[in-house]
Amino acid sequence: xxxxxxxxxxxxxxxxxxxxxxxxxxxxxxxxxxxxxxxxxxxxxxxxxxxxxxxxxxxxxxxxxxxxxxxxxxxxxxxxxxxxxxxxxxxxxxxxxxxxxxxxxxxxxxxxxxxxxxxxxxxxxxxxxxxxxxxxxxxxxxxxxxxxxxxxxxxxxxxxxxxxxxxxxxxxxxxxxxxxxxxxxxxxxxxxxxxxxxxxxxxxxxxxxxxxxxxxxxxxxxxxxxxxxxxxxxxxxxxxxxxxxxxxxxxxxxxxxxxxxxxxxxxxxxxxxxxxxxxxxxxxxxxxxxxxxxxxxxxxxxxxxxxxxxxxxxxxxxxxxxxxxxxxxxxxxxx
Length: 335
Description:
Elements: H1 4-23, H2 29-48, H3 53-62, E1 78-82, E2 97-100, E3 104-112, E4 124-129, E5 132-148, E6 154-162, E7 174-178, E8 187-189, E9 194-195, E10 200-205, E11 211-222, E12 225-230, H4 243-265, H5 321-327
Helix pairs in contact: 1-2
């Protein structure tokens, strides 16, 4: 690359070198220090422009400036993007090449919200790929992004994985496993927890075939099991399958019992007592009443319409059936 700034910087280096060689050995300490300082500043300026130490030494040894300097990549890798062509004019802001080092790759894993507290820097991770079945790569968490994704509600975590044989390619999909040590804790199978959203229940088995619903506070989920933070003690027997049916049956029995309690608690309304007053009281002495008509099982006389049951003599209309049976007993004699 040819650059007027690079050309003048080489010329300044040669002038500073000659000044150092001639004035650096002077008995005047101030003059000698200034010469050495100017020489060091000229070399540093070229180094800041990514001119290698070997190129600087070649310019000093030859005593001649190089019109076109070669710029070397600071890393070894693969050219991902190329924007430089012959006889092209570039500026300081122009990105000429993009070079990537694939010997050590980054895997961006998405972690759910409830798993974020278990992720930390330096944590061990295992990475597997679909196109390499059976192969597993070990890595470390090197960066945790500070912001959550609003769409997926996940947090990005960067895992660094060695790739010495360049088997892993950019933009591949991978599965990442992060290992955490939870210590010793009470845990139950995931299907044993009945989660309604507002609360979590497990059914504890009691003697005699009874089950007790127990509210629990759950923690992380690990390998198909759920850590129970509170509400359950180690060694208790719980229901691991069919707990939904038990919960449905218990709720149905509770609703039925509540309905029965409400029915027994209501006081029945007592019918208003009616006074029976014969329309034509008979005189004292022997009373002759007509024989009672024969009644069927429904309380109606044969041949009479069902809507108008016959009434016993000397009884007001509209009396109950029990009063009719009482009044149609055999005739009595009063003295």
